[in-house]
Each structure stands twice: as structure tokens, then as C-alpha cells.
Amino acid sequence: MTMQVTMTVNGEEVSREIEPRLLLVHFLRDEIGLTGTHWGCDTSNCGVCVVLLDGVPAKSCTVLAAMAGGHEIQTVEGMAQGGTLHPVQEGFFQEHGLQCGFCTPAMMLTAQALLEVNPDPSTTEIREAIYGTACRCTGYENIVRAIRWAAEHPALEEVTA
Amino acid sequence: MTATDVPTSPVPTSPVPMSAAGNPIGFGRMLRKEDARFLRGKGNYLDDVNLPGMLHGAILRSPYAHARINSIDISAAQAHPKVRAVITGEVLATLNLAWMPTMSYDTQAVLATDKVRFQGQEVAFVVAEDRYSARDALELVEVDYEVLPAVVDATKALDADAPVIRTDKEGKTDNHIYDWETGDSAACDEVFNRPDVVVSKADILYPRSHPSPMETCGSVASMDPVTGKLTCWITSQAPHAHRTVYALVAGLPEHKIQVISPDIGGGFGNKVPVYPGYVCAVVGTIVTGKPVKWMEDRFENLATTGFARDYHMQGEIAATRDGKILALRTHTLADHGAFNATAQPTKFPAGFFSIFTGSYDLEAAYGKVTAVYTNKAPGGVAYACSFRITEAAYFVERMVDILAHDLQMDPAELRMKNLIRPEQFPYQTKTGWEYDSGDYLVTLQATLDAAGYKELRAEQVENRARYEQTGEGTLLGIGLSFFTEGVGAGPRKHMDILGLGMADGCELRIHPTGKAVIRLSVQTQGQGHETTFAQIVAHELGLPPEDVEVVHGDTDQTPFGLGTYGSRSTPVSGAAAAVVSRRVKEKARIVAAAALECSPSDLEWELGRWQVKGDPEKAKTIQEIALLAHSSLELPEGVEGHLDASAVYNPPNLTYPYGAYLCVVDVDPGTGAVKVRRFIATDDCGPRINPMIVEGQIHGGLAEGIGMALMQVIAFDENGNCLGGSFMDYLLPTSLECPSWELEATVTPSPHHPLGCKGVGESATVGSPAAVVNAVMDALAPLGVRHADMPLTPAQVWLAIQGRPARTDLAFT
Question: Which of A37, A84, A102, A142 to mutate to probe the B interface, most B CBs <10 Å?
């Protein structure tokens, strides 16, 4: 049994014939080839699969692709505008907010969503916002600094990374 | 905090020239080259590798810790319309692949044939057209198990009535693996028997923990049926070692095997071993003629791949009444699980645990490690431990604090009194290590000063007085740890893994236009090799680092070497990169001399150029020399053209980074909750090639330490069920548990490393757990608590306060 699902991903409408049980994370990665969204645990604990669903961080390993039908999804591939990095991406670069890079897309999307509702968050507010995604490399400190950097440089910067 | 108060490197470094792109031509803070792809979601991790016609494999795993397999019926699975192959141990046995060698000269079942020996053990491999169908078909495999009693408690593994796990080993009648000794038992006895010594004893458990990188392990194997070439993409920290193991295991010619380690989503030692799933993917591609991908889920990663620790350490420390530490000894029980699959140098079955004398000048030391099989997952490989140094550092730092507790002495004062003095280096330890360099007292003082140690102790006096009066509020704890690691394994004559000496190759080629490519045997898992190694070449040759391409992770493109673990990339491969650059520099000198029509001895090096002594206007830059080396310029007899070199670096000794850590906690005695208020870390890893990257690595290691000390444990119930098989049960530290780290640095170069660098990747993981535990014990001291084992969860702290701390490795007593 298959079903038709249509959603907007990074501003483009996509439509696929899928199994109803297909997870959003596998839809994004395997069906439309956006491998920047990662998979880490299946139990909503690690948060490396976070995407923005109608602008809100959602763990795509626990969302069925069918449930995302009719909604707007943003992935890490949709952050940069043309050749210009989003301030959050630039902040992660400037402040060494990533090492292995596996949790980075989820962290950056979470930060983007935070800054849209709270453009000048304190470090405590940042830590509360990102606690749903685990990182084994950075000890979080430079991620917090990266998001502060983005808050202080809201205009899109020239691409340097 | 604002971006402007982000600390820069605390290490004073002389300024280096900057390149046109704004990067240091040498050591210094440089933003990472590899970030460009990761920031855009364009990394290429294992699960991102997709090949035309690729099939997907999944592993059926044992639900039991110990059971006999009576039969396996695969007919229903084979009948699934999307299944292409079902492979069992019986099939593998016909290929002589049912068992494989481990890194410790033991054997491990690839797919079980006779018995299963731990929960989650590999039983069958299903290959299907998509990953969901492969998982569906697992449920169609019928296995008839006869459940056997399981050995779960390592302390009972050698009991006479314990079930024998390794019945596959001919004549094996118990669960004993090895006894290993270090130091001088008689010399220790003499000290401990002196009438005036104070002896403190403790039983200290470093429970089973798991590195759990955010990316699990996996492989894509593709056999070209025409050329017979096998290409394997593997989550591997050691692609060359893996290739050799596949050649040995599968009998395939090594030149027809290419191992590619793509971007790795964290390793921490978890991606060193060869796992059955990798072998199954290879068999899968051979059987089906199609590429086969196998990717673990999180349970598989946590419950079946290389765990760490599981050391039960009985310790005794002897000192004079005024706090001069004289001797330390231990008898340690090592739980290796069902197969001894630990990866460590052959002569060191207990790894480098014998560095347990730590940073102190002792008269005597003795250690004995007894290793046993249990019905648990195999491994014990790593987790940022430099081959068991984490266990050693934790042991000695707990013993020293327990001694301080018993002597009623300040733990900082006790350490100051006993640390090895600078004039004693190189220092020969009582267990056979030669520490290369150190200035320990300065480093400890730096931490005490940064923390405001006296003020903290004064605050603690008030805190305790208030608690005593009111019985309310939190208790303040201050914990210290001073660790010394030995990293950069290692000297070939002493250290090999499966017979492969632990030296690493490096190749450097300068193109005609002065751009360079350097090829490494090591593989990054986030450490930033593409940046750091370019900086080493820049430092040696004056090339802008952006002009140096770093190639790694592909055995067809890089020279042989043993890979990245045990903090060995900078100590071994970094040295190789420096040596190979110096060879290129000497070759450049000959070319420059030919072009300048002088003798090479008339030239002197200024960063990026050879110039005539006394006449610096007459010079050739490295870029000019590169073009000349490829030109028609006549070179002296016997000098070949082009500008390249290769090197193999065989380290003369380990390097010995060290550090002093201080943790401040607030413990709520009512709930047992521990809040880490501050963490101050002074690391001395020698000169820092890229201080930003070094600090990032320390941050990450400190978070790991918080995790192990307070949250993470793989425990088992009485039937051998793994209780840490998901992130709901195996708790990783998040942004809320971690404080804002406070870092300091001292710089004491290694005298034998070409760059003086010592390696830092594991320092913080090695050093931090003891600081956290010491802090919690310090907080609880007024309540009569002397020791409790990690992880110090609220429940464990609360039990400790009640005077009955638990065995954290078992869910039963």
C-alpha cells in the first residue's frame, strides 16, 4: 500500500508516492536526497534529526512523512541564501561550534528558530533551547557562543566558510 | 556573555605571518577548512553513501545473554518478496568466516553458530531491497534457543560453578582470560609493612560506559565482479588497519581492497574495532553481486559495539602521617564481555593501565589485572581512554582523595607535596614508563589560582556551618584531579596491534605552482585534521595553509598507518607531517642552490624561502622552487626533480600530556541531585598548533567526563539484559548539565617530538571524571560519605547518604 504525500521543502513543493509508515527523516534523506538531516536514535532523545516544521523544531525520526503532508519543512540545505550563509551558520564557523558536524544541522536549525522568536537570547535561554539535541564533541560551550555570535550579527554576512 | 569576551588562546605565542586569506602561516587560531561542507549539510557520512542498485542489510540479534542455538529457520524470510539473501553462521562456516580474529588475538563469532553469548549478539544477516523490508524480514527468521544461565557479575565469573562461556575454545573450563602484573610486589609489601605508614583502602568501580558517537557504525561494501575489487566505505578510525584485517579474515588480496572512511560523525574509540556487521556487508555483496549497506540502529550501537571500562579496582595507598605518599597497589578485575575484542598493543593486555601511579613520585607500585569473560557485549576498546589510562587516572585520583580524607588533609596540599618535581624529568615510573617532560606544580597552581581555591574553601566552611545549623540547602563540593597520560602509541619495538607496528606514514607533494597535497594515514572524526595538518606544513614550509590540501581516510590514496585513536594523530602523524615537510625543505634547498648558482650550504631558511647567507635579496621562495623543481633547470648529479617526499614516523617514546582540573558542585542532600557549578581545566599538551581546536577538544572531553561521572552507565539485570540500550536509559549530558568551561594552559614541550606537541584528544575525558566524583564526595564528606561509584545519579547519591551506595553495574544484588 502506498500513498501520495505533498509538502513544501525549503520553499519547493515536493510530491512522492510513499509507504504510509515512512519516517520524515527517511523521506528527506532517501526520497528527495537531502542528506544534511541526520538520524541518530529513533527515540526522540538525541535530536540530530531536527528539522523545522512550519518554523518549529521537530524531530524528524518521530514524524511520519504522511503527517508532514501539507506542511512546510526547512532543512539545513535551506539555511544559506544563494552563496550567503545564514548568520547562524556563520556563527558556528566563527566560534568553532562544530567538530564532527553530525549534530550541527539540528543545532543550527534550532538556533535559527530560537532567534526568530528571541533575537537576543541569554546564554541560559540558548542552553534551554538546544538541550533537545545531544552533541558528543563540543561540550556545548562553543555552540552557545556561536548562537550569541549570530544574535550579534543579524544581517546576512558575506560568505567566508 | 558576548562574542567579544570569548577567550582567545591563553597560550602566549609569538605572532606568525598571516596569509592573504587571513590564516596563520603556522600555529595559531585558524577557522576550520572542513566546516564549509558541514555547515551546508554537505558532509558525506556513511549513511549518505548511496550506490546504484544498492541493497540494505539488517542483523538479527539474540534476545538472550546466553543460549544454545538448536536451529535457525530462514525459509519464511527468504520467501519475502524483497529479500535477496539471508546469511547465517552456517553459511559463513562454509566460507570459513563464521569466526573472525579480534584485535587481542581472541576469536569472535561473526554470526553465531553454536551459542549466543551476549544479548544483541549477531545471529543472521538479511539483505533486502530497502532498509524497511530488511527489518521486516528479520521478524520472519525463526530461531530455536535453549536458554542457559548467564554470567553477569564479573566478580562471580571465576566461581567454580560459573557456566563456561567460551565452550568454543578447546579445553576451556573456566572464564579466565589473563592475569597481568606490573611493578614490584615485594617492594610494595616492604613499604606497606612499615610500622609507621598510614594505609587507605578502597574498592573502586569504573562501570561499563559507551562512547555512543552521534553517528552509529555502518558500512557499504561493493564487490566489482569483473575486477574482483572490493570497496568498503566504513565508519573506521583506522582504515588501513581495517583493510589488513579484511585481507586476513576474508582471504582477499589486500591490493584488491579499498577502505574508504568518509566523514565520521564522532568516534571516541567506538569506530576502531572490526564489527561483525562489516564482515556481513562484505559477504552480502559477494553473495548478491550488488553493493550492500549496513547501518546500525542505536540499540545495536549501545548494546553490542565497543564499550569501555568495566574495571573493578581494589586499591591500597600507603603514606606517612604527614602525607608523603609512598606506595600504591591494586588488584583489578577486568570484565571483557564474551569475546576479548579489546584493541590495544599486544604486549599490553590491560592497555596502559599500569600508568596508575599517576603524577606522583612513589617508592613502590604494584598492579595485577585479572580479566574474565562474562555474558556481555565484547570490546573494552576505548572511549577516549588512551588504552585504559582513563581507568588508571580515575583510580589514582580517587585513591589520593580518599587518602586526603583519611589523613584529614587538604587534597590540593597533598597533591602539591607529592607531584613529581620538574627536575626529576625524564621521570622513570615504578611501572616502567618514562615521562618525557612536565612542570606539574605550576600547572596545579594555575588551576588553583583560576578557581580561587582559598575563597572556595572559605565559602565551603560557611556553607557547611549553615547546613549544620539548618539542615537545609545544598552542600558545596570542590574536587581536584591531576592526571598524566601517555599517548601517541607507539614505539614499534614495543607496540603493535595484531602484529602491525604502530608507526604512521605521510606523503607530501608540492605541485609546480606551489600548492601542496599531504596524505595522511590517520582519519579525523571531528578533530579538524584538514586544518591542523595544513598548519603543520605551513609552519614548516611557509606555505599558506589554504594552499595545502589534506587527503585522508582512503587506503588507495594514503600511506599505511594505524589510524586515529589513543590521541595519536598529532604525536605520531603530526610528527610524520613535520618530518616529511623537512625532507621537502631540504630538497628545496638543493633546487634553490642550483637556481642561485651557489652551494646549498650557502643558503639559510627564512619562513617560506631559501636565501643566500648575508645576501637575503638573493633568494627563492618555496613557490618559485616548486616550479623550478619541475622545470628544465639543471640539477646536481643524482638529484631527482619534482618536490615531494614521504616519511614513516616511529615514535621514540610516548608523549605525556597532563593537566590539573577542578570541579565545583552543589549537591542537594534531599534529592541527591548534583549541579556542576564550575569546571576549571588547565591542560599542558605542549605547543598548540591550533588553540581553538585544542580548546574545543578539551570542552568535549569535559562534557564526556560529566557524563561518565554523573549519568552514563551500561548496567545489566540478572539475566544479562542490557539496561542501557537506548538514550532513554543511557543518559548523555546535554547543554543543561554542562557548565561554561573555564580553561587555562601551560606549555611544556615534549623533548622528543619534532614539534614538541603531546596530543590532547583524550586528556579531558581522562582527567575529568575524578574531579567531578572528588567534588561530590567532598560535598558529602560532612555526611560521612567516603566513596560511592559512578555514575553519581541522584539515586546513587541519595543511597550513599543513607550509607549504602549501590553497585552501579548491576540492577540486582
Answer: A102
Q: What is the pLDDT of residue B626?
A: 98
Judgement on whether residues A18 and A35 belong to the same structural domain of the protein: yes
Which of A78, A112, A137 corresponds to the end of one domain?
Answer: A78
Q: Is the pTM of this model over 0.90?
A: yes
Question: Which residue does chain A place closest to B48, by CA atoms?
Answer: A35
Under an 8 A CB cutoff, do A140 and B738 touch? yes
Question: Is the pLDDT higher at B140 or at B343?
Answer: B140
Nearest CA-CA partner of B361 in B306, B415, B399: B415
B243-302 tens-digit pLDDT: 999 998 888 999 999 999 999 999 999 999 999 999 999 999 999 999 999 999 999 999
A interface mutation test: which of B35, B50, B297 has the most A CBs within 10 A?
B35
Inside any domain, residue A99:
yes
Identify all chain B residues contacting A92, using CB atoms and an 8 Å cutoff: 35, 39
ipTM of predicted assembly, 2 dp: 0.97
A124: nearest CA partner in chain B: B736
Coil, helix or strand for B411? helix
Structural domains counted in chain A: 2
Mean pLDDT over the full length of chain B: 96
CB contact under 8 A, A127 and B6: no
Tell me: the pLDDT tens digits for B426-459?
Answer: 999 999 999 999 999 999 999 999 999 999 999 9
Q: Does one domain contain both A70 and A128?
A: no
Write the pLDDT tens digit of every residue in B381-397: 677 888 999 999 999 99
Nearest chain A Cα distance for residue B346, angstroms: 29
Instruction: For residue B6, name the pLDDT band (cuts at 50, 70, 90).
Output: very low
Residues A68, A11 share a domain: yes
**What is the pLDDT at residue A57?**
98
Task: Kindly list the residues from chain A whose CB atom is less than 8 angstroms away from the CB atom of residue B738.
Answer: 139-141
The answer to whether A161 contacts B31, with C-beta atoms less than 8 Å apart, is yes
**Residue span of the structural domain in which A117 resides:** 87-154
Cell output for B590: 638543493
Residue A133 inside a domain? The answer is yes
Residue A150's domain is classified under what CATH number? 1.10.150.120
All residues of chain A having their beta carbon less than 8 Å from the beta carbon of residue B211 are 136
Per the domain annotation, does A161 fall within a domain? no
Candidates A35, A137, A142: best to mutate against B (most CBs of B within 10 A) is: A137
- Domain identity same for A150 and A91: yes
What contacts B704, CB < 8 A, 6 or more positions away? A136, B268, B383, B384, B733, B764, B765, B768
C-alpha–C-alpha distance, residues B524 and B530, integer Å:
8
Give A108's contacts in chain B (Cβ within 8 Å).
39
A36/B42 touch (CB, cutoff 8 Å), yes or no: yes
Give the pLDDT score at B380.
64
Joined grid coordinates for residue B129: 531491497
Q: How far is A145 from chain B (nearest CA, A)?
A: 7
Check which CATH number belongs to the domain holding A48 and give it.
3.10.20.30
Place B812 in a pLDDT band, splitting at 50, 70 and 90: confident
Answer yes or no: are the C-beta atoms of B212 and A100 closer than 8 Å. no
pLDDT in tens, A51-83: 999 999 999 999 999 999 999 999 999 999 988
A96 in the same domain as A71:
no
- A19 vs B216: CB contact, 8 Å cut-off? no
3-state secondary structure B337-388: CCCCCCCCCCCCCCCCHHHHHCCECCCEEEEEEEEECCCCCCCCCCCCCCCC
pLDDT tens-digit map of B44-61 = 999 999 999 999 999 999
A66 and A130: one domain? no
Cell numbers for B256:
584488491
Strands of the sheet with B55-61, listed across from one edge = B83-88, B122-128, B55-61, B292-295, B218-223, B230-234, B257-260
* Structural domain contains residue A26: yes
pLDDT at position B2 is: 32
Q: Which of A48, A76, A141 sits opposite B699 (nearest CB)?
A: A141
Chain B residues near residue A137 by CB distance under 8 angstroms = 266, 526, 696, 700
Contacts of B727 in chain A (CB under 8 A): 41, 43, 45-46, 134
Name, in order, each residue with C-beta under 8 angstroms of B472's C-beta and a sequence gap of 6 or more.
none
Strands B115-116 and B122-128, by their bridges, are unpaired
Q: A147 and A101, same structural domain? A: yes
